[in-house]
Design brief:
- The protein is built from four helices and ten strands; from the N terminus they run αβββββββαβββαα.
- Helix content is about 20%, strand content about 45%.
- The protein folds into two domains: about 40 residues, no CATH class; about 130 residues, Nucleoside Triphosphate Pyrophosphohydrolase.
- The longest helix has 13 residues.
- The strands form three sheets. Strands 7-4-9-8 form a four-stranded mixed β-sheet. Strands 1-2-3 form a three-stranded antiparallel β-sheet, with no helix packed on it.
Length: about 200
């Protein structure tokens, strides 16, 4: 009998999802009203010392696919400062951790576009860049739309346009739309629209 293979399995085999990182210390490197940046001294999974930078978001992200009765998607255009380029996206914004994501999504849709919605459905929850940040996003489908007056923030200079759903989906495939929440939300809705095949047998 091979004695090397007898006995209890190693911890990694018992619990492969355990945290293999050890945080030795944490230093707040930078903060503003929206983010906090930490530098952690760590032991890596291989046991060697290292550092890890973590961006903590003070708010959660919310995004809305606003769909009218002609199957058109409401897109918002704005210049994105970090990218130094213009971007077409679904309406998006931030929700404090004390605010319900749905309430924040309803507020953001009204502020950015003037529209409110009679029906809301969760499309997805996502972590947007989980190797470096803890930002969490909630995306919704909004229907039964009613028009009102937009009230964008002073940081927002927005255009709004309606795009057929198929065209908006194509924009996520050909690079005209690169915003992560827009790509995720529109493609998730497209998947939900696919016919469900019956189980085999």
């Amino acid at each position: 009998m091979d004695q090397k293979n007898s006995g209890p399995p190693q911890e990694e085999e018992e619990n492969p999802t355990r945290n293999p990182w050890t945080r030795l210390s944490r230093r707040l490197a930078y903060q503003n009203p929206w983010i906090m940046v930490y530098e952690d001294q760590v032991l890596r999974p291989d046991g060697q010392p290292g550092i890890y930078g973590v961006v903590h978001f003070r708010n959660r992200a919310v995004a809305i696919v606003a769909l009218d009765d002609q199957d058109r998607v409401l897109l918002v255009g704005q210049y994105r400062y970090p990218l130094d380029q213009y971007s077409w996206e679904i309406p998006e914004g931030g929700a404090s951790h004390e605010e319900e994501p749905l309430a924040a999504a309803q507020r953001e849709l009204q502020e950015e576009t003037g529209f409110s919605a009679g029906r809301w459905q969760v499309l997805l929850r996502a972590h947007l860049s989980n190797s470096v940040s803890d930002e969490e996003a909630f995306c919704y489908l909004a229907q039964d739309l009613r028009q009102g007056t937009a009230r964008p923030e002073g940081t927002e200079q927005l255009q709004v346009r309606w795009v057929p759903f198929g065209e908006a989906l194509a924009m996520t495939a050909d690079g005209r739309i690169t915003d992560a929440l827009t790509v995720l939300s529109l493609q998730r809705l497209a998947l939900l629209r696919l016919p469900v095949s019956p189980p085999p047998g």
